[in-house]
Amino acid sequence: MLTSKELERYDRQIMIGEIGQEGQGKLKRSRVVIAGAGGLGSPIALYLTAAGVGRIRLIDHDQVTLSNLNRQILHWEEDIGRKKVDSAGSKLRNLNSAVEIEAISETLTEGNVFRLVEDCDVIVDALDNLPTRYLLNRCAVEKRIPFFHGAVNGFEGRVMTILPGETACLRCMYRGPVPQEKFPVIGVTPGVIGSIQAAEVIKYVTGIGRLLTNRVLIYDGLTVAFSEFTVHKNSDCDHCGFPLRKE
Amino acid sequence: MAVRVHIHATHRQFTNGMEVVATAGNTVSECLNHLIKQFPGMEKAIFSKKDKLLNIVEVYVNHASAYPNELAHPVKDGDEIHLVLMLAGG
Lengths: 247, 90
Fold this sequence. Notes:
The structure holds two protein chains of two kinds.
Chain A: H1 4-9, H2 11-14, H3 20-29, E1 31-35, H4 41-51, E2 55-59, H5 84-95, E3 100-104, H6 113-116, E4 122-125, H7 130-143, E5 147-153, E6 156-162, H8 188-206, E7 215-220, E8 225-230
Parallel strand pairs in A: 1-2, 1-4, 2-3, 4-5
Antiparallel strand pairs in A: 5-6, 6-7, 7-8
Chain B: E1 3-6, E2 20-23, H1 28-38, H2 42-46, E3 47-49, E4 52-53, E5 57-61, E6 64-65, E7 80-85
Parallel strand pairs in B: 1-7
Antiparallel strand pairs in B: 1-2, 3-4, 5-6, 5-7
């Protein structure tokens, strides 16, 4: 049940036929984990907070540095040296005090990942490296929690939505480790990609539209082109394939 | 007719800036070898060793993943191959 204040606050999105009051109620009851409070995590957290999700658990072990500020729009000059989750948490609470923000300053590891995604409906990938993404992908697959992947480099980004047990996962096309390198990026790229991830979460939670499942969307900001590629669930996948699948 | 290979933006330094290169072959492997014959710099950009793609390279044929046996994937005139790179940043 929405209050009169909520009806006013979310009026413009409740006006969207596919969302309506029922969809807004679903957003209000949703519990979202965002792994990463940097370039991607900033727009994802901002738009989901503005949209009125019930609870956001934001996980990041890092502190704000000057070189973050070209893209990590939740962090400002005054935040340099603060924990990213504290910096982000205070902005998000100011944006929408009705959203419960849990700020978790921990490094995601095999030892804590299951605990950190406990009691959540969706997991959003806003990480900055592949090994942790795969860790989170495996956890999402095993716990059957929808997983919303995004990644960026320079002017390029990609998005894919994973419904464990039903659709291709992040690991289904894995060929081996990739060297970890400092990546170039312009702030508008995670702005575009994070916004699409947030839209995917909103669509999933409210049960509307067609999700980016079994397809990867690639954005090229230099030519302003979106390309879509079909991907297949791999029965030999070491995360979601048949031998490890839990029925 | 030919098999058109779409070159990733970061690899166009090896193809004189060309975004798409026409190749000939019956498999992805044959087309990529033809690509490398035209632009030798592409070899190190996509292969770690002979017949082994770099782990970061993804191959799509007609906008569908060619994984897992990308190089053996059959192609015919008019097909499109996209060479895409995995991204890790956030």
